[in-house]
Amino acid sequence: MKPVSELLAQQANGTLWHMHPQDTVFDALRLLAEYEAGALMVMEGGRLVGVLSERDYTRKVALQGRNSRTTTVAEIMSRNVFTVSPRADIRECIALMKERKVRHLPVVDGGTVMGMIAVRDLLDHLIAEQDTTIGQLESYINT
User: Fold this and answer.
1) CATH number belonging to the domain at 4-142, selected among 3.40.50.720, 3.30.450.40, 3.40.50.970, 3.10.580.10
2) How far is CA 39 from the centre of its chain?
3) Mean of pLDDT values over 4-10
4) Are 51 and 107 in contact (CB under 8 A)?
5) Helix, strand or coil for residue 13?
6) How many CA atoms lie within 13 Å of 67's alpha carbon, on the beta-carbon side?
7) CA atoms within 13 A on the CB side of 9
8) Between the CA of residue 49 and those of 44, 74, 75, 77, what are the distances in Å?
9) pTM of the predicted model, to two decimals?
10) How deeply is 140 buried, as exposed, middle or buried, from its count of CB atoms within 10 A (0-12, 13-18, 19+)?
11) What pLDDT, in 10s, does the model give residues 123-141?
């Protein structure tokens, strides 16, 4: 099974989509929409300090009647962030996501943030891998 570093290499030009804790939730929502992402890393001084997801917004702003234009990212972000090494196996990541009930995992190597993978990235990879295996088996059977 491939390490997640190979998935990161396939992502959009290596850009680290992130925001700062002092940014407003409204600005975060704008970035989520622009990037068509479900979550963004929250960085401060080059250090990962949290993750902000659509789930955080729904539960901590929309359902509580808070104002997204005045609420800061720091007020609602998830601070207890689970991360993985770029050498982590894809199946390990899936198991961690299932166990911790998260959909996004920042990839960190010795304190350096490399990027973030989503459950969708992992599933897309597994499906492509299975399609390749099926194609090879069909080719073998037909020869």
Assistant:
1) 3.10.580.10
2) 6
3) 84
4) no
5) helix
6) 2
7) 7
8) 7, 9, 12, 9
9) 0.83
10) exposed
11) 888 887 787 778 888 888 8
